[in-house]
Amino acid sequence: MGRAVTLATCALNQWALDFEGNLERIFRSIDIAKSKGARYRLGPELEICGYGCSDHFYESDTLLHSFEVLGKLLESPVTQDIICDVGMPVLHRNVRYNCRVIFLNKKILLIRPKISLANAGNYRELRWFTPWSKARHVEEYFLPRIIQEVTGQETVPFGDAVLATKDTCLGAEICEELWAPNSPHIEMGLDGVEIFTNSSGSHHVLRKAHARVDLVNSATAKNGGIYILANQKGCDGDRLYYDGCAMISMNGETVAQGSQFSLDDVEMLVATLDLEDVRSYRAEISSRNLAASKVNPYPRVKVNFALSCPDDLAVPTCMPIQWRHHSPEEEISLGPACWLWDYLRRSKQAGFLLPLSGGIDSSATACIVYSMCHQVCLAVKNGNADVLADARRIVNDETYIPEDPRELCKRVLTTCYMASENSSQDTCNRAKLLAEQIGSYHINLNIDAAVKAVVGIFSVVTGRTPQFSVYGGSSRESLALQNVQARIRMVLAYLFAQLTLWARGMPGGLLVLGSANVDESLRGYLTKYDCSSADINPIGGISKTDLKSFIQYCIENFQLTALRSIMSAPPTAELEPLVDGQVAQTDEADMGMTYAELSIYGKLRKIGKAGPYSMFCKLINIWKEIFTPREVASKVKHFFRMYSVNRHKMTTLTPSYHAENYSPDDNRFDLRPFLYNTSWSWQFRCIDKQVN
């Protein structure tokens, strides 16, 4: 009868402007899809050029090279006898669109432009593209000559249409359209479309994966149908990690699930499904059928090709599965680790250098590198030749086989404890023990000579010698002396990153890792240009609360017992003098707020869109059992003063893995001024009025 259709989707680790590598990965995905019997292959959004091209989308070169890659795909025997759906930018009548190009046997069937553009948070698609606003309208697109020579076509359909094959009907959505309140799949389904496709460029955020899965399953729960989703994966050149999760759903249930985090550059999902299951599911939904009888039809592009075979009664079909979600601790362990691996191999560096203080943040960063080493060893064990080749190049050994995470960590991670006269023996011991347990190459050094030299220059020039407040100095003096220590650590970190391998007789340089968490950045509790200033920061989008949970996860899953004492110690910068050999300075006392409070402020400020007055109004209810309105007012005012005084630090913040929706990242996610009137006089007066 021709009932069973075999469909393929994928998660590809594409890289912005890496046309050669992107083409190779697309070819590989199509080849695997065909080898598994698929007759339709879906790829991620803008997979030909890479999703993260940003302002390179303005360049005619990006359009030209995308069409050159498309030409290679069209003329290749690999793409024969399978419908291929690829993503690229297309200029139509001098307007740039984010498009799907669907082709079969050297003929382009349809170019489908994106209708709803993502333009919130990290997304800026309206900056580069225009949404297609002509619903159910198709125009002629004149192909460039390099494509005409391959296809023999002068024009092809361009617009909002669906494909009608011999046995079914397919309709495309692109990423954001699934999230829109008026998703195209609703009316397409009413018009008889049985297979919906979605090519995504969706990045990882902690605790977000379930939302995407729920949307895909709900898309076909009310209306029936098959929904297949492809997604980008990996770091394609910036702060985001695209987290795969390719999936196939039918009639509201998941039938195939891809991994959220892996080091595989190409991951394919193939499923065989019975079209009659869709038709029978729809048959008894009378409300759907009544709505379908009145729907405005879509233009149909007829395709002389079937996704099923005539004699398919014996073909087994896929059954529903239960989706497995990672815990937040697993997400922290895997997502930033995969992002670090992509950054390391694509930057062609020889490893990382991490200033390891013996505190929770730098220890969490060390654990993420250790988790990366676990993932590399596991991928090599599972036969991933790409990962093996990358690992050999990074460690400069063509015969190397990474089998032990500790041994690999010794080769790719250098940790450095930078002691001063204000450092305690406890933190030194904690850093050393953790380095031993993860296997990193560990350095102990003392910065006192450098600090004295820098302060000495100031004293010679001014005739004044600043003192810490415990020795009678002012708060200005004390803060300046703390900042000198912090900034010298940054200078030394970069010196050792450039020359440590040289001193050891090895080639290459190291990437410096930062370890300021999202809450400290929000509050501005860091020295500008200190050792939070690094090349990249894997924990910069993660809260202190989540990092503590992640540390506990590492104790249990990696048996890193050194982390127990790190967990139990109060967080401290160790920049002020010790008292009786013990640390007297703590982070929360310095900040005037707890990390738990900071997370709440951050979520209300960014996610809740709350200014000082709105935040006060919300918190007097949230905290009504623990604080009076006057205490809440005092806390809110203190937060906004500190946030606004320190906002300038966000303009130089180290590029961080984006993991949290209240991140203060100034690059493109959290756009704010950095010169505030820090008195907030009008806003605070409104709060005082309510308090009184």
UniProtKB/TrEMBL annotation:
<dbReference type="InterPro" id="IPR022310">
    <property type="entry name" value="NAD/GMP_synthase"/>
</dbReference>
<dbReference type="InterPro" id="IPR003694">
    <property type="entry name" value="NAD_synthase"/>
</dbReference>
<comment type="subunit">
    <text>Homohexamer.</text>
</comment>
<protein>
    <recommendedName>
        <fullName>Glutamine-dependent NAD(+) synthetase</fullName>
        <ecNumber>6.3.5.1</ecNumber>
    </recommendedName>
</protein>
<dbReference type="GO" id="GO:0005524">
    <property type="term" value="F:ATP binding"/>
</dbReference>
<dbReference type="InterPro" id="IPR036526">
    <property type="entry name" value="C-N_Hydrolase_sf"/>
</dbReference>
<dbReference type="Pfam" id="PF00795">
    <property type="entry name" value="CN_hydrolase"/>
</dbReference>
<comment type="pathway">
    <text>Cofactor biosynthesis; NAD(+) biosynthesis; NAD(+) from deamido-NAD(+) (L-Gln route): step 1/1.</text>
</comment>
<keyword id="KW-0547">Nucleotide-binding</keyword>
<keyword id="KW-0436">Ligase</keyword>
<dbReference type="GO" id="GO:0034354">
    <property type="term" value="P:'de novo' NAD+ biosynthetic process from L-tryptophan"/>
</dbReference>
<dbReference type="GO" id="GO:0005829">
    <property type="term" value="C:cytosol"/>
</dbReference>
<keyword id="KW-0520">NAD</keyword>
<comment type="similarity">
    <text>In the C-terminal section; belongs to the NAD synthetase family.</text>
</comment>
<feature type="domain" description="CN hydrolase">
    <location>
        <begin position="5"/>
        <end position="275"/>
    </location>
</feature>
<dbReference type="GO" id="GO:0004359">
    <property type="term" value="F:glutaminase activity"/>
</dbReference>
<dbReference type="InterPro" id="IPR014729">
    <property type="entry name" value="Rossmann-like_a/b/a_fold"/>
</dbReference>
<dbReference type="GO" id="GO:0003952">
    <property type="term" value="F:NAD+ synthase (glutamine-hydrolyzing) activity"/>
</dbReference>
<keyword id="KW-0067">ATP-binding</keyword>
<dbReference type="Pfam" id="PF02540">
    <property type="entry name" value="NAD_synthase"/>
</dbReference>
<dbReference type="InterPro" id="IPR003010">
    <property type="entry name" value="C-N_Hydrolase"/>
</dbReference>
<dbReference type="InterPro" id="IPR014445">
    <property type="entry name" value="Gln-dep_NAD_synthase"/>
</dbReference>
